[in-house]
Design goal:
The protein is of the alpha+beta class. 43% of the residues lie in helices and 12% in strands. 4% of the residues are buried.
Amino acid sequence: MAPPEKHIPASLEKAVAELKRDPHRAVHARVGDLDVEIRVVADETGAPTDIFGDAGPWQGETPEQLLGVLREARQRDDEDAHWP
């Protein structure tokens, strides 16, 4: 049995879209006759400690509330990302 064929985006735009969906995983793409890999460069200002520090001290929030805080921080980061 042959191994499953790996999905490779056919343009940089599609590769960037995949990268935005999962910024922790590098994306391989084919651009013309080149095989390229793109990834997000680590941003030290977005460390988890910064997110929790911005949220303030823990005051007995439920796990669902904490996930909401993290979700809001991720959305703010996504909105702050500017692509030319």
